[in-house]
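Chapter review. Work through the record for ArsR family transcriptional regulator before attempting the end-of-chapter questions.
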Amino acid sequence: MDLDVRVENGRRVIGRWDRVFEVLSAEPRRQLIVSLLDAPPDQTVSLPERAINPNVPVDPERLRQELHHCHLPMLADREFVEWEREPLVASRGPQFDEVATVFEALQSTATEIPDSLVIGCQRLEREREEEFET
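C-alpha cells for ArsR family transcriptional regulator:
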C-alpha cells in the first residue's frame, strides 16, 4: 500500500475515533446510545426520559433543552442518531454502529472493568452479574 494512502487512511480513522469519543463524553448522549441499543433497531425512543441516568435525577425540562440545542444536533451531525422535535424522539442513524460498538465491547468485558467504573452503572452491573451467574 502506498504511504500516502496509509497516511490518509490513518487520519480518517483517527478522526472517526475522535468523533466517537467526543460524543461519548456526555452522560445524556451515553444514556441515549444505550437506550437505542436496548430498543429494536427500527424503533424510536422518547426523550428526555431515555437520556436520563436512572441513578442521577435531573430536571427533565432542562435536559430537553440541552438535548434539543446541544446533544441531538451533535449526534445527528455525526449520523449516529436521527431525531424529531415533536414528539421529541430519537432513532439509530446510519453510523450508529460506530458508537454502539464501544458499549458492546464494554458490556462483553464487564467483569474485567474496574469497580470504580461499574458500581453505579446499572447496565454494567447487570452485565457483570449475568457473567458471574453463568
